[in-house]
Amino acid sequence: MPRFLGEVRRVLKPGGWFLFADFRKREEMPLCAGSWWKPGSK
Hints:
Helix content is 43%, strand content 0%.
């Protein structure tokens, strides 16, 4: 996930929006959320 998000940051225009749909099970979401909201990410 970090590599994917790095690419999103690289190609997204300043002020642009990124929309992502994820169909993981509810039990897996706490693990996934940790890779989205890290210090230094916007």
